């Protein structure tokens, strides 16, 4: 898997000369074939890439994982096929060549990269059992974490469980130094190759969880850890099964990562957690964060019942259409039952180290559509948390807040009715939150334009309604805090 520097340089130049970039491949495939490839179907793509140009040949070789003619590939990768076969990146059979690993164009916000990973298993409905040391390519979870990550400039960053190195590529755009760790030596080889191809500097280290960075601190830690909640029986797929019981891997990350954060540092994690009978998920996850010294914003995005969860991950392992499906399904369900697991939650943990005050921990369910990238909203939420933590009720009433520009008011009611049955404030961007409010809250949010203080607006509303201003302010202060925390009102 290791390539000498001259071969890496030659490969980079050949990929550039062929125009092998994300947009070019998407354009070549067209929307139908591109979307089909996203569903792991290559037939539409093969129909539109038969012209033999270098870009078509490379698209057939890597994204479509097809056999290509050696003479076509020699034109696309001049003098490189032999060295790439020797290094194990390609396999040759007579005059035909196939990819042994993937080299995939990837782009985000004007940056173009190539990412090296294992081939996508199970293309075109092929029944393929995934290898235990499989190195995952760019997955929906990878892009989700990348879009959640706060991209403020930082001195140092850690990509824990780097896999193909995709998070590290992003981190090199805004971190002075980037450490990339993994337990899988094949993943580290691929990350090194990803880094070399893209000419970025990574400090690549082998080891489990935070062991490779003992005694070090970072301004940002990101991780999409092997969080699948599975019994310790059967084949362990290192990219998703930690080998630890239940959701212990996420507990360990949540408990240990804060010790590796510099003051003000952030840790962002994609995670699964167990819903155990009799224990609210919020108590379980909040319990992991006690004593972390971090503000925490935890969002549960989805909940799968045991059967949905088992099916999802058995299919991910390529176990469908294979002998043993029923036995493995049954064993996994039996293990869930023994562990009193009623469901599994999927979501995000955002942590930020605070120094001079008590941490604020907020856990919520938000299963509705959001607008990615949410990194800026994560940063803003922590900034608003700071403002709220530093403001007592009197200070908050004295503050001049502004309604976020994307907040819209919706009213629902019978046609022709004098008053609405319900008023909802809805954000059009970011978390796209909706909040049911009454006329006082709607009036408050409508009047917050940075001119009058919250106290003045509430006093005017009390006057209109014939209520006691002090009582109204007292009654509404919790709502004001929530409206600020959730970004309807900005400090
Ligand atoms: C779900 S993949 C994420 C890969 C990549 N960071 C991404 O966002 O797509 C999880 C990665 O964690 C690695 N891993 C598994 N167990 C680990 C451990 N104990 N310590 C560190 N990394 C581990 C796996 O090899 C795999 O590369």
How is this structure best described in words?
The chain is of the alpha/beta class. It is built from 18 helices and 18 strands. The protein has helices at 5-17, 22-38, 43-47, 54-61, 70-76, 81-86, 140-148, 166-171, 185-197, 248-256, 281-289, 306-316, 325-338, 375-389, 393-397, 439-447, 454-465, 469-485, and strands spanning 68-69, 90-93, 96-99, 102-108, 111-117, 154-160, 175-182, 203-206, 218-223, 261-276, 294-304, 341-353, 361-365, 402-403, 407-412, 422-427, 434-437, 489-490. The strands form five sheets. Strands 8-7-6-9-10-12-11-13 form an eight-stranded mixed beta sheet, sandwiched between helices. A three-stranded antiparallel beta sheet has the order 1-3-2. A three-stranded antiparallel beta sheet has the order 15-16-17. Helix 4 crosses helix 5 (70-76) and helix 17 (454-465) packs across helix 18 (469-485). The mean pLDDT is 96. S-adenosylmethionine is lined by residues 136, 139, 142, 145, 160-163, 166-167, 181-184, 187, 208-209, 224-226, 238-240, 242.
Topology:
Elements: H1 5-17, H2 22-38, H3 43-47, H4 54-61, E1 68-69, H5 70-76, H6 81-86, E2 90-93, E3 96-99, E4 102-108, E5 111-117, H7 140-148, E6 154-160, H8 166-171, E7 175-182, H9 185-197, E8 203-206, E9 218-223, H10 248-256, E10 261-276, H11 281-289, E11 294-304, H12 306-316, H13 325-338, E12 341-353, E13 361-365, H14 375-389, H15 393-397, E14 402-403, E15 407-412, E16 422-427, E17 434-437, H16 439-447, H17 454-465, H18 469-485, E18 489-490
Parallel strand pairs: 6-7, 6-9, 7-8, 9-10, 11-13
Antiparallel strand pairs: 1-3, 2-3, 4-5, 10-12, 11-12, 14-18, 15-16, 16-17
Helix pairs in contact: 4-5, 12-13, 16-17, 17-18
This protein binds S-adenosylmethionine.
S-adenosylmethionine binds at residues 136, 139, 142, 145, 160-163, 166-167, 181-184, 187, 208-209, 224-226, 238-240, 242.
């Amino acid at each position: 898997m290791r390539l000498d520097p001259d071969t890496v340089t030659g490969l980079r130049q050949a990929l550039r000369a062929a125009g092998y970039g994300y947009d070019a491949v998407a354009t070549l495939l067209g929307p139908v074939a591109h979307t089909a490839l996203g569903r792991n179907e290559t037939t539409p793509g093969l129909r539109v890439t038969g012209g033999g140009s270098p870009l078509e040949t490379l698209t057939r070789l890597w994204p479509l994982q097809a056999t290509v003619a050696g003479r076509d590939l020699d034109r696309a990768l001049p003098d490189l096929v032999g060295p790439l076969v020797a290094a194990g990146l390609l396999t040759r059979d007579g005059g035909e060549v196939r990819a042994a690993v993937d080299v995939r164009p990837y782009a985000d916000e004007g940056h173009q990269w190539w990412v090296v990973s294992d081939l996508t298993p199970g293309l075109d409905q092929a029944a393929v059992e995934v290898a235990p040391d499989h190195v995952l390519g760019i997955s929906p979870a990878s892009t989700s974490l990348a879009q959640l990550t706060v991209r403020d400039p930082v001195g140092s960053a850690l990509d824990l469980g780097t896999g193909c190195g995709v998070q590290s590529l992003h981190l090199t755009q805004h971190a002075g130094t980037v450490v990339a760790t993994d337990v899988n030596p094949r993943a580290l080889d691929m990350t090194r190759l990803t880094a070399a191809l893209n000419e970025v500097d990574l400090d690549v280290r082998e080891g489990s969880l935070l062991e490779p960075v003992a005694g070090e601190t970072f301004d940002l830690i990101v991780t999409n850890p092997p969080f699948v909640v599975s019994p310790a029986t059967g084949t362990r797929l290192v990219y998703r099964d930690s080998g630890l019981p239940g959701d212990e891997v996420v507990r360990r990350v949540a408990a240990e990562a804060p010790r590796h954060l510099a003051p003000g540092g952030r840790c962002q994690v994609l995670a699964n957690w167990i819903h155990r009978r009799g224990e609210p998920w919020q108590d379980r996850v909040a319990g992991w964060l006690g004593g972390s010294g971090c503000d925490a914003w935890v969002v549960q995005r989805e909940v799968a019942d045991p059967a949905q969860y088992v099916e999802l991950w058995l299919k991910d392992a390529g176990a469908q259409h294979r002998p043993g499906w029923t036995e493995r399904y049954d064993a996994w369900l039996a293990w869930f039952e023994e562990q009193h697991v009623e469901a599994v939650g999927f979501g995000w943990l955002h942590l930020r180290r605070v120094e001079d005050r008590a941490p604020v921990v907020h856990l919520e369910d938000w299963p509705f559509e959001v607008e990615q990238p949410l990194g800026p909203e994560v940063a803003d939420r922590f900034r608003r948390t700071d403002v709220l933590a530093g403001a007592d009720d009197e200070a908050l009433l004295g503050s001049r807040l502004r309604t976020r520009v994307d907040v819209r008011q919706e009213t629902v009611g019978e046609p022709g009715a004098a008053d609405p049955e319900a008023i909802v404030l809805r954000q059009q961007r970011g978390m796209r939150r909706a909040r049911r409010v009454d006329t006082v809250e709607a009036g408050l949010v409508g009047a917050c334009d940075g001119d009058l203080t919250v106290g003045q607006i509430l006093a005017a509303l009390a006057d209109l309604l014939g209520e006691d201003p002090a009582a109204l302010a007292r009654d509404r202060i919790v709502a004001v805090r929530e409206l600020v925390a959730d970004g309807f009102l900005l400090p």
